[in-house]
Amino acid sequence: MPLTRRQWLALAAAPAFADLSRADITLRIGEITADLGHGHSVKTLAYNGQIPGPVLRMNEGQTVAIDVVNDTRRPEMVHWHGFHIPPEVDGAHEEGTPMVQGLDRRRYSFTAQPSGTRWYHTHAMAGHDLRLGAYSGQFGMAIIAPRNDPARYDLEVPIMLHEWEPYFASDMRMDVAFKLFSVNGRILGAGEPVRVRNAQRVLFRMVNASATLGHRLALPGHVFTVVALDGNPVPTPRKVPVVDLSPGERVDALVEMTSPGVWILGEPDDRQRAAGAGIVVEYGGARGTPQWSPPPAHVWDYAAFGDSRPPAPADVRIPLVIEPGTDGNLWAINGKSYPRTDPILLHSGARNRLVFDNRSTMDHPVHLHRHTMEPVIVTCAGKPVSGVRKDVVLVPAQQTVEADVVANNPGPSLFHCHQQFHMDFGFMALMRYSG
Q1: What integer pLDDT is reported at residue 406 of this predicted model?
Q2: pLDDT at res. 19
């Protein structure tokens, strides 16, 4: 059937939708009232009317077409976190990705890569409005299946951590705290349990979708074998009693289900767990009250999962000093706050060593879009790291972390702290290629 004049005009007004073919994925941004359980509900923005958004599955090398429909009146942006894709579809308007305007829609198309646990989330600024950005329910998991997937597990369990009812914890409006916590959109005891069987090998894909907080997870009676960080396989899988995740980080961990019962997979912090930060793990045939016991002391260290070989030498070193900002900005990079930060110039095709010198009293999970970083030196760990590939690297307070980036994905790439409040108030810059 030929298009009417009205239809042609509509297409001209929305050039991103000139392709009339059916999208592989459709995400609708809209306001919902989410039932967190136990009498708690929140009004928030979400994808496809659910929290988290749908788990999106893609094949490595597959070209996907994604329609983003914005049913709100405020411009929005979906960032494809951990994907190596062009800047015009990455999901950051600073790189050149068009915003999805209010009551509008836009199609994004890209090749899904690299394989592993990725995720998607809003990249809108929130400022002092704690209803927007990463404080909202706009987040979901994306899994890119490798071309050759041995699937060495019996069950896959997505785990997404988030907080609710944020508020400013001081009169200075600089510290954000939360009243409620959730795993997969429900507070502890309110959602369906993770149902397992004895002797199963379970892969937990864990994502910290927090706006500001780091989290730890433990499962009494069990240990985690960490096999991937930020979706990238580690050179040396290790058994650990506790998993640590800064905002934006992911951990893939295998668990041998050999301790039948009803357990809590949860945050060791008693206050957070009591406020919802956990999920029940139930063996088939087991009944009773979910059990919890504190995990043993454990220091999380990227180097534990790395290679025994020394890191490759860098071609160039790039100093990045992290410190409090001035003139009303909370944070600065090399003395300047965004949007006045200088571009960080990467040498094309080279191994660029980013030297993060954190002169502040706060930890910063730094995220680089469209690239992978390889941490090579963490001063607090006292030893070099090799072979660990991440897109979010935690830079502890008063410490220096060095991470290498191979500049092999040209175009502007956003670099920022993955704490929403830090990003919104100065901690952001663009990386570009030189030469």
Answers
A1: 97
A2: 56
Look up residue 156 and give its two tokens: 């896959």
Residue 284's alpha-carbon distances to 150, 162, 201, 262, 350, in angstroms, are 26, 28, 14, 9, 52
Flag whether pLDDT at 99 surpasses 80. yes
5-145 and 155-300: identical CATH topology: yes
pTM of full prediction above 0.90: yes
3-class state of residue 303 by DSSP = helix
pLDDT in tens, 297-324: 999 999 999 998 899 999 999 999 999 9
Look at residue 248 in the predicted model and tell me its pLDDT: 98
Domain ranges of the chain: 5-145, 155-300, 316-434
Query: Looking at residue 342, what is its pLDDT?
Result: 96
Q: Which CATH class name applies to 316-434?
A: mainly beta
Q: Cis ω on the peptide bond leading into residue 339 (within 30° of 0)?
A: yes
The residues, ordered by sequence, that sit 6+ positions from 356 with a Cβ below 8 Å of its Cβ are 320, 322, 364, 366, 393, 395, 400, 401, 402, 403
| CA atoms lying within 13 Å on the CB side of residue 7 | 7
63 residue type, one letter: T
Among candidate residues 340, 336, 335, 317, the one with its CA nearest the CA of residue 400 = 317
Query: What is the percent of the chain with per-residue pLDDT over 70, rounded to a whole number?
Result: 94
Cis, bond preceding 313 (omega within 30 deg of 0): no
Rounded to the nearest integer, the mean pLDDT of the chain is 93
Contacts of 370 (CB under 8 A, 6+ apart): 83, 84, 85, 87, 90, 95, 409, 411, 413
Q: What is the pLDDT of residues 239-270, one digit of tens each?
A: 999 999 999 999 999 999 999 999 999 999 99
State in words which class domain 5-145 has: mainly beta
Place of tokens 């394989």: 115
Phi/psi of residue 308, nearest 5 degrees? -80, -15
> 2 falls in which pLDDT band (50, 70, 90)?
very low
pLDDT of residue 378: 77
What's the rounded Cα separation, in Å, for the pair 283 and 280?
10
What are the Cα distances from residue 127, in Å, to 90, 367, 426? 22, 19, 11
**CATH superfamily assigned to domain 155-300:** Cupredoxins -  blue copper proteins (2.60.40.420)
Beta bridge partners, 29, equal 47, 70
Query: Which 3-state string (H, E, C) describes 152-218?
Result: CCCEEEEEEEEEEEEEECCCCCCCEEEEEEEECCECCCCCCCEEECCCCEEEEEEEECCCCCCEEEE
| Residue 91: both structure tokens together | 């999901």
